[in-house]
Amino acid sequence: MDKKEQKTVEMFFQASISYLVRAANRTHALEAAQVQLNESCIQLGQVRLVNEQGTAKWFKVESLEEPEWTEAQDMHDSNRYKVSGQIKLRLSLQTSDKVEKELKMNSFRLPKSMIHDHTVWVIPTISRPAFVSVLSQSLHVIPAVEKVAVYSKVG
Fold this sequence. Notes:
Largest sheet: 7 strands, antiparallel
Shape: elongated
Distance between the termini: 12 Å
Number of strands: 7
Helix content: 10-25%
């Protein structure tokens, strides 16, 4: 049997996001965002992030903090408000030293939209997908925990 060392790299992902809701006023807009996008209704098992070369990696979502909605801006269009806030995830990835270095350089991000000039993140929820605009994002690596995996040779 060959032994191959793998590392579980854990990281914190944080994004400033905005989300459009229909509401009568700013207070109701913040409440609507909280009801539609909260810890209990978001269903994120994995998140796809890409590096600067376009290589994608699927990161496991270990935990999600309750999104924090801080501001509601009237769009002056049929009671629509753009609600802004923060979402924080704890992610993990089984990886090699090379990819870990890329992660430490903060080169993995949510991919940009092919249609818009910014990132649109489709967040799965228990009722319907939520389309949020990503205003900024960051990925911070937590020191890796080494795990030894045992693989057997075939043939």
